[in-house]
Write a structure and sequence with these properties.
Structural class: alpha+beta
CATH topology of the largest domain: Aspartate Aminotransferase, domain 1
Largest sheet: 4 strands, antiparallel
Order of helices and strands: HHEHEEEEHEEHH
Distance between the termini: 23 Å
Shape: globular
Number of strands: 7
CATH class of the largest domain: Alpha Beta
Oligomer: single chain
Number of domains: 2
CATH architecture of the largest domain: Alpha-Beta Complex
Number of helices: 6
Helix content: 40-55%
Length: 176
């Protein structure tokens, strides 16, 4: 189990408060995704957006209120499992999956891909790392073929796996 309060305290000392930080639109981090956001940021995987996963209709209603109805975005593809919209020249795929958007160095990307390969070989819920821009922006998310509740329940498990995979590194870096 993760000592979540201890983890949050270590993050605060690094200048990142998972309970106070917001995304670029001013929205706080969803509760169910906080453990993964906290672990990733503790390990210097820089996150800039996240979502615990929501029913697709709720996501579409929120986007309609904020962007679609004002002409800021346009849906270009849609079915019962996802929709794709264009916003400020970028394509965004929306589904129910929990996700964390990250800025990664090539080394971090390689390490995270290896961790996901190892994790996915032992677990039913599969996590993927999608390239968002062709640069260094990635979306760490669940492959969207599972019920929302199952995907959300897996957030703690992947968080613990990633943290435990870095345990020796953490002990050296944080406790010297």
């Amino acid at each position: 189990m993760i000592d979540y309060e201890g983890l949050k305290e270590k993050l605060r000392k690094k200048g990142f408060d998972v309970d106070r930080v917001t995304d670029p639109a001013g929205t706080p981090i969803d509760e169910k995704i906080k453990p993964l956001v906290a672990v990733l940021n503790l390990l210097d995987y820089s996150s800039y957006n996240s979502c615990e996963g929501h029913p697709l209709y709720q996501t579409k209603e929120r986007i309609w209120t904020n962007d679609l109805s004002k002409g800021h975005a346009k849906i270009i593809e849609e079915d019962e499992n996802h929709f794709v919209l264009v916003y400020q020249g970028f394509k965004y795929v929306h589904d129910e999956s929990p996700s964390v958007e990250l800025t990664l160095t090539p080394e971090q990307k390689s390490r995270l891909e290896l961790l996901l390969q190892n994790y996915n070989s032992k677990n039913g819920i599969k996590w993927i790392l999608d390239n968002l821009s062709g640069l260094n922006h990635y979306d760490l998310k669940v492959r969207p073929v599972f019920p929302l509740e199952e995907m959300q329940a897996n957030i703690i498990k992947i968080s613990e796996f990633i943290l435990n995979s870095h345990k020796l590194e953490l002990d050296e870096n944080l406790f010297l």
